[in-house]
Design goal:
Layout (H helix, E strand, L loop, with lengths): L3 E5 L5 E6 L5 H10 L6 H4 L7 E8 L12 E7 L4 E6 L5 H16 L1 H4 L2 H14 L4 H9 L5 H13 L4 E6 L4 H13 L4 E11 L5 E8 L3 H14 L4 H12 L1 H16 L5 E4 L7 E8 L2 E10 L3 E3 L2 H5 L7 H12 L16 E3 L6 H19 L2
Length: about 375
């Protein structure tokens, strides 16, 4: 039997836990239904851990005319509406490995045909009924009280149309051969993400049990390809940004972001708006161009509902690199909730949550403060 791991109890007793195979594939499948976090979302995406919404166990194609006569073990969605197709096997041999890979790639290639969005919604609702849960309650727990269900399902459809899905092969042991195949596929298939997940079980003599998941297949080359593709695909603009911040943060915060954006637009051409890229940190920056110098970035507003400034950007160039002007800037920004460091040029990015600006006077004070900032810079 393979080696174990060791648990230190509160009484300083060392408990040895030995690796133990699962009784059956069903046992491992049941664990994934009960504990979806075993799919190691923090290892799949270390910047923003993936969370899982179970759509169905034993999800079969909805097209009755298809020749496919088998079903997928689990169908999940993550918080970005990416369909995640999970196949569970206990240590597959070479023949079974080839069959599993072929079937799963078939599903990935034909996911939109097998599972139109209406079919996925029906599977989700049926699964909720089987578990005695309210679909709306589960959805709210997954995306939060401000989650936009209609927009989320539309995003599922968009991902399916683009072929943006994730394949996860789960076993208690991933062989070296399986690992090489998964790494190769993950590097070559874009935008499909192909991963293996090894979940080892350890048990002590007195019945304690622990499960250790490990994601396999994320080579540096695969991660670079897919992160580059994501950046290229997701470039924000006015329409997409305000729709997304409303879906994520609610109508009130979206309205505050809109007011700040319209203030910046009213300052054109002196102030320029630049749109960023990225799923997690997208937003817009308000910049003041400077002849012969780098532009002043006044602030950024992102889809997480934050206004942020760069202390280094302000403190490293005139007029705020002068002590008296820096102190005056610190006082002005402190009054609206942006705390600059004592010394100019220190690398820090103070931020202000938009929900703190619900009072109209607070929002007006922010805009008046940056009016003052612009006038101060223009005196150079």
């Amino acid at each position: 039997m393979a080696g174990g791991i060791y648990l230190i109890q509160d009484d300083d007793r060392l408990v040895e836990m030995m690796e133990q195979p699962y009784d059956s594939e069903d046992q491992l499948q049941d664990l994934l239904v009960t504990y979806p976090n075993l799919i190691a979302g923090d290892q799949i995406d270390r910047a923003t851990a993936r969370r899982w919404l179970l759509i169905s166990r034993e999800a079969a194609p909805s097209d009755e005319e298809t020749a496919v006569q088998w079903s997928l073990d689990h169908l999940f969605l993550d918080q970005n509406a990416v369909p995640t197709l999970v196949d569970v096997r206990r240590t597959p041999n070479a023949e079974l490995r080839q069959k599993v890979l072929g079937q799963s790639i078939d599903y990935a290639a034909n996911a939109l045909v097998y599972w139109p969005v209406d079919s996925i919604i029906a599977l989700f609702e049926a699964n909720c009924r089987d578990r005695g849960r309210d679909p709306e309650q589960i959805f709210e727990e997954f995306l939060g009280a401000n989650g936009n269900e209609e927009r989320f399902w539309q995003k599922v459809k968009t991902n399916l149309q683009a072929g943006k899905v994730r394949l996860v092969f789960v076993a208690d042991e991933i062989s070296a051969e399986m690992r090489r195949v998964v790494e190769f596929l993950n590097e070559q298939m874009d935008p499909v993400e192909v991963l293996a997940l090894e979940i080892k079980q350890y048990v002590s003599e007195d019945g304690l049990k622990t499960l250790v998941p490990r994601v396999i297949g994320q080579t540096a080359e695969a991660q670079q390809k897919k992160s580059s593709a994501t950046r290229e695909r997701r470039r924000w603009d006015e329409s997409s940004f305000f729709a997304e911040i409303k879906a994520r943060r609610g109508a009130d915060e979206a309205q505050m972001a809109k007011a700040i954006y319209l203030w910046a637009k009213s300052q054109e051409p002196e102030v320029q708006i630049h749109w960023g890229t990225g799923d997690a940190y997208g937003g817009f920056a308000a910049q003041l161009p400077q002849k012969g110098r780098k532009p002043y970035q006044l602030f950024t507003v992102d889809i997480a509902g934050r206004m942020e400034i760069s202390a280094d950007n302000y403190g490293s160039q005139p007029p705020f690199n002068a002590e008296q002007n820096w102190l005056e800037l610190r006082s002005k920004l402190s009054s609206i909730g942006l705390s600059l460091p004592i010394e100019p040029g220190e690398r820090r990015s103070p931020s202000l949550a938009l929900f703190t600006l619900q009072d109209e006077s607070a929002l007006q004070q922010v805009m008046q403060t940056f009016d003052w900032v612009i006038e101060k810079i223009k005196t150079l």
